[in-house]
């Protein structure tokens, strides 16, 4: 897999993870916690996939700047970090809905 395909893998998987988190939140708001939990579980799968690609890129670089940094790589990292934040916040919000 070439670098561009790897970067797109991060973007696609991170985006899917984030979307599923918000679907889970909508389910929790509607009181369907079983569906919310299932969506969060599925979101975690996509988050792991994105993180795996990121880890592979970091390992290939070996901290020596071997991998050329591009705007699309920065964009991919942004997507990954946003999806991680969404997961953390949505998890907390679902817990709040669950208590009420």
TrEMBL record:
The modification Phosphohistidine is found at residue 75. GO terms for molecular function: metal ion binding; transferase activity. InterPro entries: PTS_IIA_lac/cel, PTS_IIA_lac/cel_sf. Its cofactor is Mg(2+). GO terms for cellular component: cytoplasm. Binds 1 Mg(2+) ion per trimer. CDD domains: PTS_IIA_lac. Pfam families: PTS_IIA. It is found in: Cytoplasm. One of its GO terms (biological process) is phosphoenolpyruvate-dependent sugar phosphotransferase system. It comes from the Bacteria. The active site is at 75 (tele-phosphohistidine intermediate). Gene3D superfamilies: Phosphotransferase system, lactose/cellobiose-type IIA subunit. Mg(2+) binds at residue 78. SUPFAM superfamilies: Enzyme IIa from lactose specific PTS, IIa-lac (SSF46973). Keywords: Cytoplasm, Magnesium, Metal-binding, Phosphotransferase system, Sugar transport, Transferase, Transport. This is PTS system N,N'-diacetylchitobiose-specific EIIA component. The lineage of its organism: Bacteria, Pseudomonadati, Pseudomonadota, Gammaproteobacteria, Enterobacterales.
């Amino acid at each position: 897999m070439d670098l561009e395909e790897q970067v797109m893998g991060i973007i696609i998987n991170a985006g899917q993870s984030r979307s599923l988190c918000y679907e889970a939140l909508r389910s929790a708001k509607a009181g369907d916690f079983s569906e919310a939990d299932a969506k969060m579980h599925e979101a975690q799968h996509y988050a792991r996939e994105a993180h795996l690609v990121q880890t592979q890129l970091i390992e290939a670089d070996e901290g020596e700047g071997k991998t050329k940094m591009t705007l699309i790589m920065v964009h991919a990292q942004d997507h990954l970090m946003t999806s991680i934040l969404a997961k953390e916040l949505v998890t907390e919000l679902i817990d709040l809905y669950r208590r009420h």
